[in-house]
Specification:
Elements: H1 2-25, H2 43-48, E1 68-72, E2 93-95, E3 99-100, H3 103-106, E4 126-129, E5 132-135, H4 140-147, E6 153-158, H5 162-173, E7 181-186, E8 195-197, E9 199-201, E10 207-209
Parallel strand pairs: 1-3, 1-6, 6-7
Antiparallel strand pairs: 2-8, 4-5, 9-10
């Protein structure tokens, strides 16, 4: 009888340990690591609004969070001459998990380096006049809230960090929480393990951009109701 009882106890312990291990490794904890408070980098990177603690050097550690959204603010092909400052006017690649929302469709862009020249100058969701953002459409705020949910942490990236910084400035001015928005810098300086290449050399030796790989949010301004 003692042997039977001991066998039952041993079996129960083994099952309990097995259940713990299965739960620990087959179903990882859903607890999310706390994030450092946004803090500006020093020097020129700080002037662009790039974060000191979360940026291109370590963004891989913060990918895939259920409490966050990831936005790349570049156009697929920017009219600006970004090659003049060592970048790429085309979206040559992106970090896996980021979705593209082109900033120049959200607002008129100012303050670009002289070498770059002008970017897109067509219709925009908002008009920026010295930091005052006026909606051009009745749905402008609703579109912005759908693309940048206020209840989520928002990670922003672009080519060099400028568009991401402009996006954060706009969101904060319109009521978003600055402590939940991180400008993580520029894809041009990213060397992590989650790079999705869009630019490649075709069979004829010419450069090809596989834009079909890009998770892209199309903002159809013509479908919105213009404010008079």
């Amino acid at each position: 009888m003692k042997k039977v009882v001991w066998s039952l106890i041993t079996g129960a312990v083994v099952l309990a340990i097995g259940a713990f291990l299965i739960g620990r490794y087959a179903f990882p904890s859903t607890e999310l690591a706390s994030l450092p408070k946004p803090e500006l980098s020093e020097g020129q990177r700080g002037q662009l609004g790039i974060d000191k603690n979360i940026n291109e050097s370590n963004i891989d550690k913060y990918l895939g969070r259920s409490d966050a959204v990831y936005r790349d603010m570049r156009m697929l092909k920017d009219p600006g001459n970004y090659e003049a400052i060592g970048g790429d006017s085309y979206l040559s690649g992106f970090v896996d998990g980021f979705e593209v929302v082109p900033l120049p469709y959200l607002m008129n862009v100012t303050g670009l380096p002289e070498q770059v020249g002008d970017t897109y100058r067509g219709k925009t969701l908002f008009t920026n006049n010295n930091g005052v953002y006026t909606p051009n459409y009745k749905e402008s705020i609703a579109v912005l809230e759908a693309l940048f949910p206020k209840d989520k942490v928002i990670f922003l990236m672009c080519g060099g960090g400028g568009y991401a910084g402009m996006t954060k400035n706009m969101l904060v001015a319109l009521g978003w929480d600055a402590d939940k928005i991180y400008n993580v810098g520029g894809y041009w300086y990213y060397n992590g393990a989650n790079k999705i290449e869009v630019k490649r050399t075709g069979a004829d030796g010419k450069t090809v951009y596989d834009f079909y790989k890009v998770p892209y949010h199309d903002i159809d301004l013509d479908a919105l109701t213009e404010n008079k």
